[in-house]
């Protein structure tokens, strides 16, 4: 029997995407890699084929003219003063490779992984959404939920108490339910306790969030409330969505963002956005429009709050998980008006900055820096709103880091100040028993950014941030919070070891080449001061180096903290 020798098959050509990503290409059109990851697949013509085309047309070879930059990045590319510096990294098109880098920079999980790999590849923690919330599904796993009538799960008195917790702690941040209308439904519900009503899903969602904000450990009723709302909402999927159905979906999404896994929460947020579009809530009403809108009358402020909160949750979950967000075309909904006791407008006011961070958008370093300055200048008053502001600030810092930008000066001071404010807001949440999703996430991400900034000022803030994480673990002792604290400690340890290694190498060099080696081979003592000729040499060195002209002489150059304050990111 004859055997045919099998040789490895290799494609003679590779598509542009596989060439850029350095991946094996099968040469198909589209290739398998582009089909799998939904990339645009195209092939560059070979030089011989291009030459034949030119000759056939009678063309002559010419030098390629530079492609003009788009309007958004045209103009002088001077480095902004007192803020950040780096080579120009502007791209004229959002290639798959650039898109992937942007997705990674937006995701806190990917950033942590790349940070650890840059410090110590062998001991780096795995890719994981550390401290995405304080529970990551732990509350749901404490028992077996049962779907029941809400009147069988909680009493009317309990429902009133839980709703008060919701409107005191959650509604000021996520305002999309009219309290008067809610209380009318709640009061009427217990008069007919044996029949189910579509508004039950809203009642269950409000009660579940009330349980979350009033109990460190979930009562059995909390799980049954979530399960009952889920069953009702799944049943309602067969018909056109009502305003109550969409409100219940937003409540479910918010609950899962604070307690569940990233997958379940992201899926719920996507469904919510599709329901918003199906109901026509994304458009301000137009008299002459024939497009579908809700048959029921909806308060404009409630509609705008629903759309805004749903979009806020979907956008940030997509950034965190590195997945797509739901883009609704022709959206004309404006933000809700401010109302006494509410700071929903502060949170939703951050949405325009999210559009700038979209991975599909080409954003250069100058635009990112301008966005960062605008975010830092905003005034946010309450802890949940402050953490939302801090979250987008950290995301922009990650994006700038991906472009090899270095923050310094006033903008660095503002970043560190907001990071400190965010940590203290998280500490306040622990003390008041308000387990918002950013309560554990922001302190963990702040530690990562502080290690990357790597200055004496940033390093000095790590202790307070770690103390905050420890407080969170003490109150919400879950696998998610414990893992976040351990991972933060590991990152600090790896960073310390790398610093010690660098310091040891520098020490060995100075043992061989002491400061006075040129004129006096005697090794100087650790407390000796530079001689006049040595001082003159160092002063001239400080003047000659372009990066040192802003420093105040030899005393500052030899200051102990100078090596940290120079403003160079960790590799």
TrEMBL record:
Q: Where is the composition biased (Low complexity)?
A: 78-96
Keyword flag Lipid biosynthesis: no
The answer to whether the entry has keyword Nucleus is yes
Gene Ontology molecular function: any one: DNA-binding transcription factor activity, RNA polymerase II-specific
Q: What is a biological process (GO) this protein takes part in? A: response to xenobiotic stimulus
**Residue span(s) of domain Zn(2)-C6 fungal-type:** 14-43
Pfam families per UniProt: Fungal_trans (PF04082), Zn_clus (PF00172)
Q: Where is this region: Disordered?
A: 62-98
Protein name as it appears in the record: Zn(2)-C6 fungal-type domain-containing protein
User: Which organism is this protein's natural source?
Assistant: Clonostachys solani
**Lineage, broadest ranks:** Eukaryota, Fungi, Dikarya, Ascomycota, Pezizomycotina
């Amino acid at each position: 029997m004859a055997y045919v020798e099998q040789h490895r098959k290799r494609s003679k050509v590779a598509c542009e995407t596989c060439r850029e990503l350095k991946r094996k290409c099968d040469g198909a059109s589209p290739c398998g890699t582009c089909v799998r990851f939904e990339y645009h697949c195209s092939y560059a013509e070979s030089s011989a084929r291009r030459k034949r085309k030119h000759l056939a047309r009678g063309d002559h070879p010419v030098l390629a003219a530079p492609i003009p930059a788009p309007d958004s990045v045209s103009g002088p590319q001077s480095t902004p003063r007192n803020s950040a510096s780096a080579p120009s990294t502007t791209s004229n098109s959002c290639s798959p490779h650039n898109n992937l880098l942007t997705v990674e920079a937006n995701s806190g999980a990917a950033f942590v992984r790349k940070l650890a790999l840059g410090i110590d590849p062998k001991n780096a923690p795995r890719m994981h959404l550390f401290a995405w919330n304080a529970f990551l599904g732990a509350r749901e796993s404490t028992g077996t939920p049962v779907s029941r009538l809400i009147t069988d799960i909680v009493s009317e008195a309990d429902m009133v108490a839980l709703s008060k917790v919701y409107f005191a702690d959650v509604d000021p941040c996520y305002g999309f339910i009219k309290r008067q209308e809610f209380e009318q439904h709640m009061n009427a519900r217990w008069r007919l306790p044996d029949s189910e009503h579509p508004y039950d899903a809203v009642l269950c969602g409000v009660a579940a969030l009330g349980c979350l904000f009033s109990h460190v450990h979930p009562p059995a009723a909390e799980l049954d409330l979530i399960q009952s709302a889920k069953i009702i909402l799944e049943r309602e999927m067969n018909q056109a969505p009502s305003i109550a159905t969409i409100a219940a979906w937003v409540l479910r999404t918010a609950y899962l963002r604070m307690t569940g896994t990233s997958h379940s929460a992201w899926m719920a947020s996507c469904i919510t956005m599709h329901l918003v579009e199906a109901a026509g809530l994304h458009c301000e009403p137009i008299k002459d429009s024939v497009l579908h809108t809700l048959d029921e009358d909806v308060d404009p402020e409630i509609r705008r709050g629903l759309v805004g909160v749903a979009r806020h949750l979907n956008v940030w979950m997509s950034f965190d998980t590195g997945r797509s967000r739901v883009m609704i075309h022709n959206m004309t909904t404006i933000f809700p008006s401010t109302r006494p006791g509410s700071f929903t407008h502060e949170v939703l006011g951050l949405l325009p900055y999210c559009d700038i961070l979209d991975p599909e958008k080409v954003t250069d370093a100058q635009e990112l820096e301008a966005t960062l300055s605008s975010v830092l200048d905003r005034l946010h008053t309450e802890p949940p709103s402050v953490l939302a502001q801090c979250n987008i600030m950290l995301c922009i810092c990650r994006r700038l880091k991906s472009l090899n930008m270095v923050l310094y000066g006033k903008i660095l001071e503002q970043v560190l100040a907001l990071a400190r404010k965010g940590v203290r807001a998280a500490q306040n949440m622990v003390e008041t028993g308000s387990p918002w999703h950013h309560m554990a996430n922001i302190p963990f991400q702040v530690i990562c950014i502080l290690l990357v900034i790597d200055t004496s000022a940033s390093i000095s803030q790590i202790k307070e941030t770690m103390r905050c994480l420890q407080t969170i673990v003490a109150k919400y002792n879950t696998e998610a919070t414990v893992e976040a604290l351990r991972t933060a400690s590991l990152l600090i340890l790896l960073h310390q070891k790398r610093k010690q290694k660098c310091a040891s190498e520098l020490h060995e060099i100075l043992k061989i080449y002491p400061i006075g080696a040129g004129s006096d081979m005697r090794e100087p003592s650790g407390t000796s001061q530079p001689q006049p000729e040595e001082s003159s040499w160092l002063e001239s060195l400080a003047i000659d180096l372009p990066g040192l002209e802003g420093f105040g002489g030899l005393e500052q150059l030899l200051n102990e903290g100078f090596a940290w304050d120079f403003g160079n990111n960790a590799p």
